[in-house]
Amino acid sequence: MIDLYTAPTPNGWKASVTLEELGLPYEVHAIDLMANVQKQDWFLKLNPNGRIPVIVDRENDDFTVFESGAIMVYLAERAGRLLPTDEKGRSRVMQWLMFQMGGIGPMMGQANVFYRYFPEKIQPAIDRYQGEVGRLFGVLDGHLADKEYLAGDYSIADIANWCWVRTWKWSGVDIAPYEHLQRWVQTIRDRPAAQQGITVPYDIKLLKSGDDSEEARKFAEDARKMVEMGKPKE
């Protein structure tokens, strides 16, 4: 059994979708980010960086893994699926996994902060990050023009990128110009394990309810408070 400490975010979904796809038994422990539970001493013993997700593999001497990409690699290797074992195949998957971790995730995250969460609307920053997200979407779209998945067969690279790209609307970036990316997003969305994984630890329904829903407004306000808490103290 694997303990999963997580919250309903793209990085959290990377772990839960992977677990669902691999069919590994796991127990969910929801972490209340708004209450700063991830900064409590007990959690920092699991992840010194104070971020979700974290897993503890009870069947492997309570081995603890933090960082969502590292979790995905560990789980795929443990199950022997979603990550090729040959040198070139593994490298292709790792390249696109790193693309998400170094590009898609950070840029969409910053777009969210400046477009959704900062009380001050700093338009040059919004334009900067939304523009970079659009550029990265174009990279994915071009690569997927003649490919069903990012690195050959369906893999953790697809899961990692999809968990972020599917939230495009929240970042304020239109996916309409990217025909091949849209097809890929829908293909993964149709997978039962992906559908289940994005309801962990609970289904926030945020992307279904729209920008102007009460849930969207509350989520943005809570995130704004987290941004404020993260500012350096004067």
Topology:
Blueprint (H helix, E strand, L loop, with lengths): L1 E5 L3 H13 L3 E5 L10 H6 L7 E4 L5 E4 L1 H12 L7 H31 L5 H21 L12 H10 L2 H4 L7 H11 L2 H6 L8 H4 L4 H16 L5
Parallel strand pairs: 1-2
Antiparallel strand pairs: 1-3, 3-4
Helix pairs in contact: 1-3, 1-6, 4-5, 4-6, 5-8
Features:
single chain, alpha+beta, Glutathione S-transferase Yfyf (Class Pi), Chain A, domain 2, four-stranded mixed β-sheet, globular
What is the CATH topology of the domain at 87-191?
Glutathione S-transferase Yfyf (Class Pi), Chain A, domain 2
Q: Name the helicity range.
A: 55-70%
Could you give a short account of the major beta sheet?
Answer: 4 strands, mixed
Number of helices: 11
Biggest sheet: strands side by side, in what order? 2-1-3-4
- Computed over alpha carbons, the radius of gyration is 18 Å
Q: Got a strand count?
A: 4
- Please provide the ordered H/E string of secondary-structure elements: EHEHEEHHHHHHHHH
Shape: globular
Mean pLDDT score: 92
Beta content comes to 5-15%
Level-1 CATH class name of the domain at 87-191: Mainly Alpha
CATH architecture of the domain at 87-191: Up-down Bundle
Distance between the termini: 45 Å
Low-confidence stretches: none
Helix-and-strand structural type: alpha+beta
